Amino acid sequence: MIEDNASPAAPWAATRNYDTADFVAGCRERGCTPHVSQNNANRRSAIDARTTRHPGYRISTIKRKRIEEPFGWMKTVGGLRKTGIVGAAWWNGSSS
Q1: Measured between alpha carbons, how far is 53 from 69 in angstroms, rounded to an integer?
Q2: What SS3 class is residue 89?
Q3: Residue 7, burial from CB neighbour count under 10 angstroms (0-12, 13-18, 19+)
Q4: Quick check: 1 and 23 in contact, CB under 8 A?
Q5: Of the residues 86, 88, 90, 95, which has the fewest C-beta atoms closer than 10 A?
Q6: Residue ranges, the chain, pLDDT below 50
């Protein structure tokens, strides 16, 4: 997906689950900058100072938080039970 959509030096944002050495190395190999949330819980993050020193990384983290805030509200206050679509059968209207 990165190869089809990323231009050279384009920032590529992802969640904390993508803070792995393989994903970060793959992004850099393809010429894009990984703007991934750092996962410092009981381990060392794969995102180093090459990425975090730029102002664009900070802007990216702020925007990511603003995007995820409504989903957090919907889950806690708004009564949203389940997010996402499970299987193509549900989407097409047929039962599984």
Answers
A1: 25
A2: helix
A3: exposed
A4: no
A5: 95
A6: none
